[in-house]
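S.,

As promised, the magnesium ion run. Input:
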Amino acid sequence: MIRVLDPETIGQIAAGEVIERPFSVVKELVENALDAGATRVTVRVRGGGLTEIEVADDGAGIPSDEIALAVRRHATSKLGGAGDLTGVDTLGFRGEGLASIAAVAQVTIVSRTAGDEIATAVEAHGDAVGEPHPVAGPPGTRVVVRDLFANVPVRREYLRSAPAESARITSWLATLALAYPQVGFSLEHDGKPVFTFAPGDDLAPRLRHVFGAQSSTMVPVRGEDARAVVSGWVSSPGDERADRRSQLLFVNGRLLRSTLVGGAWAAAYRTFSMVGRHPYGVLYLQVPPNEVDPNVHPTKSDVRLRHGDRVVSVVKDAIAGALRRGASQRFATAVSFAPPSSPDAGQPTADWADSFVPRAFGTGGANGERPTLRVLAQVDRTFILATDGDAVVLVDQHAAHERIVFEQLAANARASATAEPMLVPHTFEVRPDEAERLDATLDALAAGGLHVERFGERAYRVTATPARLVHAGRSRPFDVADFVECLGDDVRGLDADQRVWASLACHSVVRAGDRLEYPEMTALVERLQRCENPMHCPHGRPTVVRLEPEAIARLFKRV
Ligand code: ADP
Ligand code: MG
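Predicted complex:
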C-alpha cells in the first residue's frame, strides 16, 4: 500500500537525487519496475531522453485507487515507519522518484494489477495530478515521460549532447542487467533496437555487451562465509585494463562503489597482473540487508558495510581462487604439457628429483588426449623452444624459474616450512648502505626459509637456506650484493615480503645465458605448470609465449 511517509522518517533519509538529466529518469523508472518484481523491462528513448522516455514492465502494477498517490512526494509502498530503514531491500524507498520526474516533465502512468480487469491511467505535470481514468492495457506498468526540462535552461545543454546521454543510458542499463539475469531487458533509441537480453541464467550476452569480446575468457568467482556470499566473473590474468572503471560491484542488487572491496580486488590480484594494469569484472555481494547502509546519498560513492574486514577476506579469497583457476586454464591453452614419459624425454636430474611429481593435467591429462609439449631446444641460452605439434611455444627460462622459486618461498612462508641448516655457514660482507637495506629484509627472508644473521659491522652469515628450493642449471652461489641492489626496485602490486621473495627468486635462479640440459628444461616447464600463476614472473612479465600457426603463416606471407 502506498502511504505518505511521516515527517520523522523523512527526516532520517537523505534527500534523493533530483532529476538532473534524462539518464536519472530512466534510472528511477527502471528501478521502480524491478522493485515491482518485473520479469521483462522495455525502455524506449527518443531524442536522448528529452523528447520521450518510456519504461514498460510486467510487474505487480499499482492499484487504481493508489495511482494518484504514487506521484506525491514522499509517498511510497516500500517503507513502513521509522526504524524500518535498516532492512530495506528495494532499490527505491524515498517516495520521491515519480514526484521529481513530474516536477520537470509531462508524466503519464498506465498501470494494471493482476487482480484488475482494466488498467488505470493518470497524468501529472508539476504539482498538477489529473483524475485517474480507466484505459485498456496489459498487467504491469508503463510510464511515459515527455518534454523533459521543457521550461528549464539545462535542457539546451542536453539537446546538444543527446548522443552522449543515450550512451550513458545504454551503458547503465546493460550494467544493471548483469545484476538481474532473471529479468529480460530491451532498449531502443529513436526506434532502433540497441539490445534485447532474454531472461535466464545465461549471462554471456550481457557480459559481452559490457566487457567486450574478451569476456569469453572471464572466470567465475564464488565464495562465502556464514554471512556473506560473493559470486561473479573476473577477467583472467593477462587480460587487464588500464584503469579500475570496469570493476563492477553489486551489493544486494545495487550497483555501488566500495573502496574496501576495491582493495580486496587489488590484494587478490597482486602478483597476477602486469604492473599498472587492472582486472575487470563484476562481483555480486549478498549480505544481510541490515549490514549495509542503504541510506547512502545517491551521489555519495562509498558504501558502508558492517563487518567490512570479514567481507573483504571472503571477497579476496574468492577472487584469488578464480584467478588461480583462470591462470591455469590459460596456461593449459598455451602449453599442454605431458611429463617426460616418452623415451626421448630423458629423466630428471637428481637436483630436480625431490620436487618432481608428475600428475595429470586439465581434462585430457597425461592420457595423451591432448597434444604433448615437446621441448626441442634451448635458444640463445635464454629461451626454451618447444612445440605441441600445433604451435610453437617459447618459455623464458629466467622468468619461468623466477616464478617457480617465488611461489616456493611464499609456500614455505605459509607452511612455516623448515629451513635447511648449513653445516658451514656462508659468510659475506656488504657496504654500510647495503647493510641497512639488508637488515630490513631479514625477517621476510627468514619467513621464506633463508636465515641470515649479522655478526659484525658489515659481516653476515647465511645459516640456513630455504627447504625444497628448485635448482636448475649450474647452482650459483647466492649473489648477495646483487640481491641487495635489487631490493630497491619498486615492484608495485607486491607487499613487502613478496618483494623480498621476488628479489631472492630473481637472484637464485637460472639466468639468461645459462646453458640448460634437456631434462632440466623439461622439468622447468613441467614445474611451471604447477604454479598458481604460471603465466607471469613475479614482476609481471610473461613467462610463456605461444606462436600459433596463423601467426607463423603470416610471417611467411601465406595469408
Ligand atoms: P519509491 O520508489 O521510492 O517508493 P517512487 O516515487 O519512485 O518512490 O514510486 C512511488 C510508488 O509508486 C512506489 O512505492 C510504488 O508503490 C509505486 N510504483 C512506482 N512505479 C511502479 C511500477 N513500475 N510498478 C509498480 N508500482 C510502482
Ligand atoms: Mg522509485
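Residues 2, 28, 32-33, 36, 57, 59-62, 70, 75-78, 92-99, 141 surround adenosine-5'-diphosphate (ligand 1) (CB under 6 Å). Residues 250 and 317 are 18 Å apart (CA to CA).

- D.
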